[in-house]
Amino acid sequence: MPRHSLPDGSGSAGTRGARPTSGRRPRRGQGSRRRTVVLATAFVVALGAGTAVAARTGVLPFTDGCEDSVGLRIAASPDIAPALRSLAAHAREEKTTSDGRCLDVRVSERTGAEVADSLRRGSVGASADYDVWLPDSRVWVDRVTSSGRAPRLETLGDVAGSPLALAVVPSAAGKMGWPDKRYSWSSIAGAATGEGDLRVGSADPARSATGLLALTRMHSAAVEKGGGKSETQAAAAAKQLAERTAPGDSQVLATLPRDDSGAELGNPQRNQALIVSEQAAYAHNKAAGDAPGLRLFYPKEDATALDYPLTLVDSDKLSTEKSRAALRFQTLLGDDTGLRTLARHGFRKPGGKADARLARAAGARSPQPWKATPGDPPSTRNVRATLGMWTITVQSARFLLVVDASASMAQPVPGRPGQSRMDVTKASLIQGLSQFTPQDEVGLWEFATRLDGGKDHRELVPLGRLGDRVKGGGTQRDELTSAFGRMEPIPGGATGLYDTALAAYKKVRSSYASGKFNAVVLLTDGSNEDPGSISRDELALGLKEQSEGKPPLPLITVAVGPDADEKAAEEIAEATGGSSHQVDDPSQIHEVILKAIMEAGSRG
Fold first, then answer.
1. Of the candidates 111, 113, 106, which has an alpha carbon nearest to the alpha carbon of residue 132?
2. Each residue's pLDDT tens digit, 216-265
3. Which of 265, 378, 446, 532 has its CA 20 to 30 Å from the CA of residue 331?
4. Tell me: the pLDDT tens digits for 305-324?
């Protein structure tokens, strides 16, 4: 019997919403008639098709009673967990079975971010207390599978849906033209980032799929509206939004006015609007009491939604009984009882088909486009870029820039008459500095063999906030700009790569700043040329020792030009969970650094 053929009562494989057999205890005499019908049907079909239907479909006779059961543990998003518990209780009451064994489903509440972080650390098997994961969005599943160290995840399908919207208290909604006026993601972005007097809150995009998906849409819209200008504008907008961000979805709902009094509505600490799911607005409105109900503005284009994918965890090692029990529970979620249960808790059917009563209770009114079926979700690439931007913008970046100053940096750059690699590198670094905020911390080293006594590196500017004043009256940014301008290739200097990489990593690790995105960025145009230095294996071991069991500190390497040792750069970066990049033209360095930092930030 195939492992994932549907267990008893599941209907045909791949059919959404098929009604399973109820699993009720048969009345005396009924069980034998049922078995007779099943066996007779199987016999007739087998004669016609030449197959063993019962073995292929898993349609087996139910046991009389529930002396034996199969347990299934589900870690579910807190918003959908109550609906799952209700359905699990119904299954126990009805003695619903999977392959003749009663289905015993236990549901725990875990945020998508919490489970994703745990799985990325390898917490599976005996250390995990769940067999199945039901996050609110596939972004968490993608985050795990892209980590490279994750257990095998197998998504069986979506079980519900809930579109995102801007939820506004009635007084502010009226001023915004609800329900007649429609807003695009671009205009929602403007409202969320300080345009006008509206106070808009959001859940933390690093911990909430609602916050992350919405910010991705707003980020894309802001960049498009800006005519392709730099990421700095979008980052500045995110910075403003972060000032009204709560850790999670339940916490952000608590920032709304508690009643419709002038004191509450006018309180600057209270948000007048939130970016939430339709389900969250539905739940809030049902439990509002004296608090004002929310009104929903649905984006008029590029709608996106939470999709709730039912996912097997470590599926290669999951027993056949548990994986088939998960399939059985999936059919219960898709039958009439399951869909009604989900609707009572504010969820749409999978795919986002609208329910008029649900939407109106959540705050929808025509002509708001609440009936629109959500389109394709943002690409994984866009989501990761947005998360990286959020990480370094909100947490602030803190990185040491380590630049190769060996003699080879005097080589001319093809297509740039009169300009050396160092000339173009300096110009690119100065340009890149403008992409970071005054709160970001940047320091500068240069390196070449025996540059400073017996050391292959020299500190030019210690780590410091770009906006802080330094000796001489200027800012840290001014100091770095001046230091870039003074850098020149060292005559006769060779590339002291390995000793420098380890020294820089130890330096930043020793002064690691919690709450910031810490990193080392190393630029080199050659390979290690110091015969007295540590070996590559010793470097990798030293970096791993500095990394294991400690907060993330990626080392990002940029190999410049055709002579750079790309293999060494890759190994150095991989030892710390960082990334390696290659550029032929040094003028691309600033773009590569920003993207690399954002990419590292998206991995947390």
1. 106
2. 888 777 667 654 444 555 666 677 778 888 888 889 999 998 888 888 88
3. 378
4. 999 999 999 888 889 999 99
Which DSSP letter does residue 545 get? H
| String of DSSP letters for 126-169 | GG---SEEE-S-HHHHHHHHTTSSPPPEEEEEE--BEEEEEEE-
Say what angle helices 336-344 and 81-93 make with each other, to 10 degrees.
Answer: 140
Strand partners, 560: 583
Instruction: Pull the structure tokens for residue 400.
Output: 């040491």
Q: Which residues of 473-482 are buried (b: 16+ CB within 10 A; e: fewer)?
A: eebbbebbbe
- State the virtual CA torsion across 474, 480, 482, 485 in degrees, nearest 10: -170
Closest to 603 (Cα-Cα) out of 519, 546, 514, 506: 519
3-state secondary structure of 399: strand
**119: CB partners within 8 A, 6+ apart:** 128, 133, 144, 150, 151, 153, 313
**Which residues contact residue 451 at a Cβ distance below 8 angstroms, ignoring those fewer than 6 apart?**
405, 457, 458, 490, 493, 496
pTM: 0.70
Q: Which two tokens stand for residue 409?
A: 């940096």
